[in-house]
Amino acid sequence: MSRFSHARALLTGSGLATLALLSSLNTARADSAVLARGEYLARASDCEACHTAPGGVPFAGGRAFNVPGMGVLYSSNITPDPKHGIGKWTDEEFTRSVREGISPGWKHLYPAMPYPAYARMSPAEVKDLRAWLATVPKSANTPPANRLRFPFSIRAIMIGWNLLNGPRSSYPDDPSKSAEWNRGRTLVEGPGHCADCHSPRTLTSGLSTSRAFAGNTINGLRAYNITPDRTSGIGGWTDEALAQYLATGHADGHGTASADMAEVITYSLRHLTPGDIRAMVTYLRDLKPVASDDAPAPSRVIVSNNGTVPQNTRGGRLFVSACAGCHLADGSGRQTPYANIAGARSLSANDGHNLIRIIMDGSSLTTRDGSTHAMPGFAGGGYSRKDLTDITSFVMTHFTEATPSEAALNKAMDAK
Ligand code: HEC
Ligand code: HEC
Ligand code: HEC
Fold first, then answer.
1. 264 touches ligand 2 (CB under 6 Å)
2. Which atom of ligand 1 is nearest to the CA of 191?
3. Of 73, 153, 273, 281, which residue has the fewest beta carbons closer than 10 angstroms?
4. d(Cα 110, Cα 114) in Å, to the nearest integer?
5. Is the pLDDT of residue 3 over 90?
6. Which residue's CA lies nearest to atom 9 of ligand 1?
């Protein structure tokens, strides 16, 4: 076709229709790209884990957060429902809430919502996230009212907190570091908000920067030291093991991510690309090593004892009836490699804290292929406190050289 007849074709009705079709195809393509970016960011930021009550509609809120000394607060309904959710909000209102912790009507959010970390995402990224969030099913759920102690019940006190600890902001890449490191920093410090659980708190409940990622107790669990320190952190892990743990929730010789970390994998990290997992590993490896006082005890190598569990303690006998159906004498899983607990930090931590909580509350992990591996909770299942501390002490001394203390285990039992 000559140039001339091409221009004429455009002026005819069919030409216009073709143009209209082409441009609508373009918008459709742009929209799906925005939605894909938004969904990926929503996964990387773990919004669903906190904004879904146990057994509840995704993103409809109502999950309880027990903040010691402050009281209980509940996550909000962030589905697009116009009345009970955030359907009526503008993108600007949403971005301000997520990055600055200020919802419409000057409602100052509590930092149980990790807006200081989310401020690392650019406003454009948060807008993409919102576009995807607007596509999830609406829910008319109204979360319970917060039960916070005075003065924490007054939202305006967050103005002061924000001045001390509040929103950071997105930052330019550090040109002295690799692109992979910069991507890792963005993911870990921003959407991943890993420090929210893994960094100790300052006196004003801000995140410690001098001891960043050196471990913290949160939601009744120990989020371990994940700095490269060799004894109390993860300096002894290989890059491959760390990547495997983050991508799948399990690394041979390090056990399985459980409880809150299992949720991080289930809702968030299992959705990330291998390249993004590698970037996170690169950044975590380069953190300042910080020693903490909860270095784990050495693991025991369980020499083959004919696959039998020693029966000379009450705890050992209870382990056989309650646990050995899924965990073998050497810690390997009977039905699934995800139940291979040998080498797990929860077994070797001297306070036995996470171990007894996992035994009490159970844990569930959904991994990359969508399969779910669950461990039942034993609290309230006809087991006395003494039964539970006996099993825990047995597990600690059978698999590791940890030194269980009845007092520490009882304290952990009451931690939630
Ligand atoms: C660690 C838990 C946690 C995570 C992760 C989390 N939130 Fe929240 N979010 C909360 C809690 C708790 C509240 C209620 C805070 C309050 O009442 O002050 C909240 C409040 C909000 C609000 C304010 C709603 C309102 O009605 O004022 C929005 C919007 C919101 N979250 C969006 C998100 C998005 C988007 C993500 C992911 C990028 C996310 N949240 C991730 C815990 C979380
Ligand atoms: C909601 C709190 C929470 C968040 C957010 C969180 N973690 Fe964890 N993490 C934990 C807990 C609790 C454990 C211990 C799990 C266990 O005992 O099985 C843990 C364990 C780990 C471990 C294993 C440490 C060891 O010595 O066994 C690594 C590695 C880790 N987390 C990395 C991360 C990274 C990277 C992020 C951010 C993407 C992150 N975590 C976000 C709570 C959290
Ligand atoms: C029905 C099978 C089943 C039974 C019974 C069971 N577990 Fe588990 N357990 C699992 C699975 C699957 C996992 C991995 C899933 C997860 O951690 O979220 C697991 C995880 C664990 C972990 C976490 C390991 C880590 O790396 O942090 C510990 C500790 C544990 N089990 C101990 C026990 C003890 C002690 C008992 C008995 C009181 C027991 N389990 C009973 C299936 C079971």
1. yes
2. 38
3. 273
4. 9
5. no
6. 113
| Residue 90 in tokens | 């503008």
Average pLDDT over residues 324-342: 92
CB atoms within 10 A of CB 140: 12
The structure's pTM equals 0.93
Instruction: Using the mean position of ligand 3's atoms as its centre, give its distance from the Cα of residue 345 in Å.
Output: 13
- Compute the CA torsion angle 24, 29, 32, 33 (nearest 10 deg): -140
- 232 in Cβ contact with 292 (< 8 Å): yes
Query: Residues lining ligand 3, CB < 6 A?
Result: 255-256, 258, 262, 322-323, 325-327, 336, 338-339, 341, 344, 346-347, 355, 358-359, 363-365, 373-376, 378, 391, 395
Nearest ligand for residue 241 CA? 2
Query: Is 192 a pocket residue for ligand 2 (Cβ < 6 Å)?
Result: yes
Q: What is the pLDDT of residues 210-231, one digit of tens each?
A: 999 999 999 999 999 999 999 9
Both tokens of 269, joined, read: 């990290």
Nearest to 208 by CA among 91, 288, 269: 288
pLDDT more than 70, % of the chain: 92
CATH architecture of 314-413: Orthogonal Bundle (1.10)
Q: Whose CA is nearest to atom 42 of ligand 1?
A: 113
Instruction: Please state the domain extents for the chain.
Output: 27-170, 171-295, 314-413
Tens digits of per-residue pLDDT, 173-200?
Answer: 999 999 999 999 999 999 999 999 999 9
Identify which ligand lies nearest to the alpha carbon of 227. Answer: 2
Asked if pLDDT for residue 120 goes beyond 50, the answer is: yes
